[in-house]
Write a structure and sequence with these properties.
CATH architecture: Alpha-Beta Complex
Largest sheet: 7 strands, mixed
Helix content: 25-40%
CATH topology: Spore Coat Polysaccharide Biosynthesis Protein SpsA, Chain A
Low-confidence stretches: none
Distance between the termini: 29 Å
Number of strands: 11
Number of domains: 1
Number of helices: 7
Shape: globular
Order of helices and strands: EEEHEHEHEHEEEEHHEH
CATH superfamily: Spore Coat Polysaccharide Biosynthesis Protein SpsA, Chain A
Bound molecules: cytidine-5'-monophosphate
Structural class: alpha/beta
CATH class: Alpha Beta
Strand order of the largest sheet: 5-4-1-6-10-7-11
Strand content: 25-35%
Length: 233
């Protein structure tokens, strides 16, 4: 089933501490953002990529994209102060139909099988997100005092991609903007607008590269995938 994807790539990456956009950092000799773009550009179901970038970085992206052989349409949108603003700007450039995915530029390890399942669930239900069961015990804490231990079996760690019918995501964003609500993911806006959201179980490898130690995990994931490919050939 066809879809379009919004990829927010306009963050400053402060927690990575590189001093510049963390998506420019290289993994296996290639900027992180291009590992992410490769996944969607090589998926025949992906009809359009909306890449949300800071205006000051658009030139860098144009130059780098000029070296690629991608055939999928890539359109730029401009980033906002918060991720939510960036995604909403991207959404305004999307075709107002079908299923729209939102996927963090900083999650290069998403796989086609998971995307396919997500699209199929979102097409039927209107809203679906990728998540994995929480492995650790999670406690609610206030001033370093434990307030409560939360029942782990009901907890899921949410990732991207998140997929929605265009109108569901657009209505949710418009409402959040009108009511000055900021959420940490798209689904929280969609839930708040009264829609139900389905979970698709993803993979623990689909990490968001946030702090410097994540780069070690990223190298390990790349190595694992390289070995798997060699075993298959
Ligand atoms: O900072 P964090 O990694 O949580 O951001 C997730 C994704 O959202 C990143 O790919 C980042 O580039 C993007 N982002 C954005 N606009 C912002 C903040 C973050 O596009 N204002």
């Amino acid at each position: 089933m066809d879809y379009q994807v919004i990829i927010p790539a306009a963050g400053s990456g402060k927690r990575m501490g590189a001093g510049y956009n963390k998506l420019f950092l290289e993994l296996a000799g290639r900027p992180i953002i291009f590992h992410t773009l490769d996944v969607f550009a090589s998926d025949p179901a992906c009809k359009k990529i909306i890449l949300v970038v800071q205006s000051a970085e658009e030139e860098w992206f144009l130059q780098q994209l000029g070296k690629e052989t991608y055939t999928t349409e890539i359109q730029f949108a401009h980033g906002g102060t918060e991720r939510q603003h960036s995604v909403y700007n991207g959404l305004k450039s999307a075709l107002p139909e079908g299923v729209v995915l939102v996927h963090d530029g900083a999650r290069p390890f998403i796989e086609h099988d998971t995307i396919g399942e997500l699209i199929s669930v979102a097409t039927k239900s209107g809203a679906a997100i990728v998540a994995v069961p929480v492995k650790d015990t999670i406690k609610k804490v206030k001033d370093l005092d434990v307030v409560e231990t939360i029942e782990r079996s009901s907890l899921w760690q949410v990732q991207t991609p998140q997929a929605f019918h265009f109108s569901v995501l657009y209505n949710a964003h418009a409402r959040a903007e009108a009511e000055h609500f900021m959420g940490t993911d798209e689904a929280s806006l969609v839930e708040r607008a009264g829609y139900s959201v389905k979970i698709v179980q993803g993979d623990y490898d689909n990490i968001k590269l946030t702090t410097p130690e994540d780069l070690y995990f990223a190298e390990a994931i790349l190595k694992k995938r390289h070995h798997k490919r060699e075993e298959r050939n």
